[in-house]
């Protein structure tokens, strides 16, 4: 597997950052690491004085940041999303400790997002479910909560180890149609299609829906589906639905 | 050469930091990385409100910081001092890029300092001359100046890779009961179950059966299913079959 990244394939997504100074400091950290695409979900005052001051020479990054109403909208065109979390809990199988990032890197030319949650409470379980990998920054000692911009800084620093050295040279594309990783919106489409089938067939019981869908999510995330895989699974699910509808006399 | 460090052998030295908020943010970064010894040379207002706020849960580090009148006094008991610099210039032979820190690590039980200069102008040549190694944090793109606390954060993060002690991460054990990888026979059982459903629902066409089943095989192989995953998928497939049989009047 190729282990190179290109800074221009990386986005940073901040979900509901509430301290404008942090947003600015994140922009500066991105500027240091050559990453320019900042996506903000319901940010607080991202162009205020404090944000601009802390951005220092990376102010243009703030000005050019994209604003989104939902985390889903902010990641839908990406192919791999690392969601940062303070605890890996039971999702250990989809988890990655930051120093092990190399073993979770995508193939070349993958659009990668690093998503960071609220200063106070991080990302919700629903937001983490959007992510293809859960990323944990190890801490030592008793102070486990990282400042938001510090978290972005170390994450991009770790990512920068794998930048292709000749990043200004166009690398031969591995994107020959069928072998592209599925985008997040394709994955979400698959998951809700599956959920419908699970509901139709009575597989999902009311009291365990969330846990079961999380487990399917984990499974798909680990397999890193291509767009062709997603079409294959959706084709299979569609056939199940059609068969049931036919038997129900709906066709 | 041994490549372990102990957090308690590390000091962080800030020379003339002029933004109290940065001093607090440095304390927090140190707290995250388990480093507690902060040495301040002629700092500005290190115990003010802004410093304390930005230190968050690492406030005790600020309170316990040692104050010095000169850089010489701040490092005299240390055995190895890394001085950070934005340019390695002609001192390249004493220089180290942060990602190469491992090759410059001291032998065990060495008292190590990481020295950081003024926000505006870094360390002077005289101060760098006190250092045993010059440390450079690589940047990419046009924004080359790092925030002081960001510089401390990435430096200690890199150092933490070589800590002898373990972090707060539980080492992934994928072998605890329900989390065992599925056996080959469990996987084969799943695949033939899936094949039956694909046939029943008319998804498999005679002339492409083999290719399609290979593609599903690949997919499952990449996800590395546990025995619990296999039970989940077989449960889902079973519900599809039961639903179809019921509608066929077979139940």
Short description:
The first copy, chain A, is an alpha/beta fold and about 250 residues long.
Pair with the most extensive interface? Answer: A-B, 69 and 71 residues
Number of domains as seen in the coordinates of chain A = 2
The helical percent of chain A reads 40-55%
- The CATH homologous superfamily of the largest domain in chain A is named SPOUT methyltransferase, trefoil knot domain
Individual helix count of chain A: 9
- Structural class label of chain A: alpha/beta
Q: What is the terminal-to-terminal distance of chain A?
A: 47 Å
Q: Could you list the spans of chain A in which at least 5 consecutive residues all have pLDDT below 50?
A: 166-178
Per CATH, which architecture of the largest domain in chain A? 3-Layer(aba) Sandwich
Give the overall pLDDT of chain A as a whole number: 88
Shape of chain A: elongated
Give the amount of beta strand of chain A, in percent: 5-15%
Order of helices and strands of chain A: EHEHHEHEEEHEHHHH
Radius of gyration of chain A: 20 Å
> What name is given to the CATH topology of the largest domain in chain A?
Alpha/beta knot
Largest sheet of chain A: 7 strands, parallel
CATH class of the largest domain in chain A: Alpha Beta
E-strand count of chain A: 7
Instruction: For the largest sheet of chain A, list the strands in their spatial order.
Output: 3-2-1-6-4-7-5
Quaternary state, please? homodimer
